[in-house]
């Protein structure tokens, strides 16, 4: 696992097609803008389990 210190406005590229931009960074909250192709699935950790419970 890679752990980074991030400031507002900084960007991380993952491969050639995925870009994470840190829009707002507070003490315990981070807002991230994700730019990725439509065929790339983006799920929050635990989101898949919640969707199964709702069904």
Automatic annotation (TrEMBL):
Keyword Acyltransferase: no
Organism whose genome encodes this protein: Clostridium brassicae
Keywords assigned: Bacterial flagellum biogenesis, Cytoplasm, Repressor, RNA-binding, Translation regulation
Pfam families: CsrA
Family annotation (InterPro entries): CsrA, CsrA_sf
Entry protein name: Carbon storage regulator
Coiled coil: none
SUPFAM superfamilies cross-referenced by the UniProt entry: CsrA-like
């Amino acid at each position: 696992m890679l752990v980074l210190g991030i400031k507002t406005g900084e960007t991380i590229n993952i491969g050639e097609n995925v870009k994470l931009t840190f829009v707002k960074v507070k003490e315990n909250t981070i807002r991230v803008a994700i730019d990725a192709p439509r065929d790339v699935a983006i799920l929050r950790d635990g989101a898949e389990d919640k969707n199964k419970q709702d069904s």
